[in-house]
Amino acid sequence: MREVYVVGIGITKFSRLEYPLVEIAAYPSIMAMKDCGLSSVDHVYVANMGGSRLNRQTALGSALVDHLSLYPTGAETIENGPASGASAIKTGFMAVASGVHDVVMVTGVERMRETNNLEATDFVASLAHPLAEQIYGVTLPSLAGMFARLYMDKYGVTSKHLAMVAIKNHNHALANPFAHLHMPITIEGILEGPEASTNNPFVADPLRFFDMCPVSDGGACLILASKDVAKKTKKPMIRLAGVGQATDTHCVHERKDPTDLLAVREAAARCFKMAGLKPKDVDVAELHDAFTILEIAESEEVGFFKKGEGHIALEKGYTALGGKLPINPSGGLKAKGHPVGATGVGQAHEIVTQLRGEAGERQVKNAKTGFSCNFGGFGNNVVALAFQKEK
Amino acid sequence: MKEQILGYKCSKCKTVHYPNRAICRKCGNDKFEIEPLPDKGKLLTFTHLYNPAGDFEVPVLDLGIVELSNGCRITGQMKIENPKIGMKVIGKIEKVRQSGYTSYKGMVFYKA
Amino acid sequence: MAIELEKLLRPVDNPVPLFPAKFVTLANGEEMVIRQITREEIPALLPHVAKLIQVERDYYDIVSARLYAELLGYYRYRVQDEYVLVAQINGHLAAIVNGRCLNPQVGVSYHTLALRRGLRIGAHAFAAKMEYHIDIMKQKEVLVVAESPIGFRRWMIEYQLEKRFEVAHELGGVPSYALTKKLFDRARSSLVVGRRPVPEKLLEKACEAILPPTDPPKPPFDLLAATRAMYDSTGTALRASRDQLEGGEK
Description:
The structure holds 3 protein chains of 3 kinds.
Chain A: E1 4-11, H1 21-36, E2 43-47, H2 51-54, H3 60-67, E3 74-78, H4 84-97, E4 103-111, H5 117-125, H6 140-155, H7 159-173, H8 187-192, H9 196-199, E5 202-204, E6 207-208, E7 217-226, H10 227-233, E8 238-247, H11 262-275, E9 284-286, H12 292-301, H13 310-315, H14 332-336, H15 340-356, E10 369-376, E11 381-389
Parallel strand pairs in A: 2-3, 2-4, 9-10
Antiparallel strand pairs in A: 1-7, 1-8, 4-7, 5-6, 8-11, 10-11
Helix pairs in contact in A: 1-3, 4-15, 7-12
Chain B: E1 6-10, E2 16-17, E3 32-36, E4 40-49, E5 61-68, E6 73-78, E7 88-99, E8 102-111
Parallel strand pairs in B: 6-8
Antiparallel strand pairs in B: 1-2, 1-3, 4-5, 4-7, 5-6, 7-8
Chain C: H1 2-9, E1 22-25, E2 31-36, H2 42-52, H3 60-75, E3 82-89, E4 92-101, E5 106-114, H4 121-136, E6 141-144, H5 149-158, E7 162-168, E8 175-180, H6 181-186, H7 188-191, H8 200-208, H9 225-228, H10 239-247
Parallel strand pairs in C: 5-6
Antiparallel strand pairs in C: 1-2, 2-3, 3-4, 4-5, 6-8, 7-8
């Protein structure tokens, strides 16, 4: 297996972007090509979840190569729910590692705000089991709410811990020009003040408005290359050291212990094994905090903290910028935004930015090893990636 | 005819699955017998969803996961005043969703 | 002659109690004052509303166009029994809500315009308006309609407003819904928040001047981008606006 390097990166602001889906995909792709100085690639993978339903556009891979005038380069779209982004990176990794291609472009893109947010929520809910979950009106926030209730009951996590995740990630996002929400929030305003119930109402009890990620548009791109090509680009050598993916039951209720995220545990373990790393080697991580509770739960499942101790690490400030292991320095899905198909690529973009030392005010000092976890379904398809800086 | 939610019992290892699947997740067998699910169970977890999908004309949708008396679990709606984790519940088959002209029936849990 | 004609055209407002100013702490810790403004302050609002007429998303265009007309109608004495409440953060305009009294028992809600988003400012402002009608003017019910699906979701479904379809609402003649005293009491915990009296300094700052909104919704660079995007999938015409959007952030 050949070694695979990230040579070029590009991203749009995660926000409401009022231009067509393929344009949102093209912009970061051009940025990434300029970043590494390559004008052609061997293959294009586009990660997208909702183009067909939200934007009436399918076959985005073909649309993007045409828009970038890259034809006859091969291209395809990869859909794996909210984990589409990291799935596409993994596919690109396999293409380069196997020797089939030398340079591949992986672009994640989503335009969710073309419809209203009721439609968008209903669209994301389509990844739940159609007969055993969807007919009851199960949405992702409701699954997260049920998960959170049990988790809080079992491990002593409180609403205040959840609010602390939100406040931390909102603060991180202030230093990220690409983040959707540039808005500091306070514990008084969202939880303890007299007006908190209106500022931060319940969405899926015990989860509230500020426990949820925003609905965003956005795109991000990574260009992966073999070692020979990477050396020629003269960019910092950031190696995609490990990829790991695992699945779990479709219905949340079928899991033996509904507070376990086995797919996260397994994906991370596979990823670390391939990379020859341990969780303690990680300097900076991007975890999939579509709901605040998930950052706490994932930080335990991937092995950073013991089960039931993630919220204690949070309390001690370990996971904030400047702490022992900063989690979501970009602001995470919570504040950076969550354009579903682009999220996994966006996470990888942040890790590469951190390892290159180009993160500016939100730079994690001496970051050498980074990790990202992209969570699809409600934990039924998870892709983990590990990155390392060489020399 | 009494309306029931059907479980799928593996003909070999007798594990009951809900919803159905093509291969038994315990023993790998691909033959199942239909077995109606019991209606009694205990509430495992729940949520009050304040922004249900556009076709629900209710302000709040109560959803829960219940462990039925045969050990099988099911997600359903709830009509319970003050739900508590671990409380005993009983399920009834009712209309749970109206999507355009199509209506869906499913399990709604009440306090036992 | 002209003066007499104006006298005929100009309605005489019925006396009603004024809305006592209140303040709320927002999610970001900032304090927002909600207060009633006088006719003389209307011109300070108009330019900020006018700009939003160009924002053709989330119904900002139609709401601000109609609100502009209502504010002007109030200022120039062409609407009877209208009132306008504003929400301000450090003096900066954050929301405008208005309505009028149909008769002593029934109020009509006009518009809720949030000039800053993401902090549930609109929800606070709408709640203050309902509080004014039911608690302060002691009315029996308020007629409400929604112009956006989100508004419909929030008000008609969340608060379960009663149907008053026999009454055509003043906004476009569409069937009305009503927030009754009973429904209001049920939702009191979320509809009546905020504290009184407003600390003197805070109120002074708010009354001193209505400052421009700090982060108002902006129109897309290409005014028709949102509409055209549906039909122009290659987006060639939108290329320039994209570059502006990406390059021109803050």
